[in-house]
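Budget justification aside, the reviewers requested a transparent look at the raw inputs and outputs of the sequence design task funded under Objective 1. We therefore reproduce one unedited record. The lines immediately below are the C-alpha cells for a 128-residue chain.
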C-alpha cells in the first residue's frame, strides 16, 4: 500500500502543476499540509475498503486516485465553495444575460412592427 507521505507528495505535486492558484491559496492560508493529509487519509481509507472487498491494490488505486490525489482541474475537490470573485462574476453574467434578453425582445418587437408595416404597405391597392 502506498504510504501517506507518498500520497501527500503526489497530491502536492499534482496541485502545483494543475491547480496552481489553489495550491498558492492553501499554502498562503497555512491549510496546505492539513488538506494533503486529509486527501492521503481518504485515499488510503477507500483503497483499504476496496481491497477488503477483493480488489487488488493497483485496481483500488485506479478507482480512487482521481477522486483525491490526481484530480482533474475541472473537478476540483480542493475548492469546496465559490470565492467572492466567482459569485460577483456570476452575478454580472446574470445581469448581462438579462440585458441581452431584453435587447433581443426589443429587436424582435421592432422587427415584428416593421414586418407588419411592410406587409400593410406592400399589399397592392389594386389588382393588376
Amino acid at each position: 500500500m502506498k504510504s501517506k507521505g507518498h500520497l501527500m507528495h503526489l497530491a502536492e505535486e499534482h496541485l502545483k502543476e494543475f491547480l496552481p492558484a489553489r495550491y498558492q491559496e492553501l499554502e498562503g492560508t497555512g491549510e496546505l499540509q492539513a488538506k494533503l493529509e486529509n486527501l492521503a487519509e481518504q485515499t488510503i481509507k477507500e483503497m483499504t475498503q476496496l481491497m477488503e472487498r477483493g480488489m487488488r491494490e493497483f485496481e483500488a488505486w485506479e478507482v480512487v486516485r482521481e477522486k483525491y490525489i490526481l484530480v482533474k482541474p475541472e473537478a476540483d475537490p480542493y475548492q469546496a465553495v465559490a470565492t467572492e470573485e466567482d459569485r460577483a462574476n456570476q452575478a454580472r453574467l446574470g445581469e448581462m444575460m438579462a440585458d441581452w434578453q431584453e435587447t433581443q425582445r426589443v429587436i424582435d418587437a421592432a422587427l415584428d412592427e416593421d414586418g407588419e408595416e411592410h406587409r400593410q404597405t406592400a399589399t397592392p391597392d389594386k389588382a393588376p
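The helical segments are 4-18, 20-29, 32-52, 57-68, 84-122. The radius of gyration is 28 Å. Computational costs for records of this kind are itemized in the attached budget.
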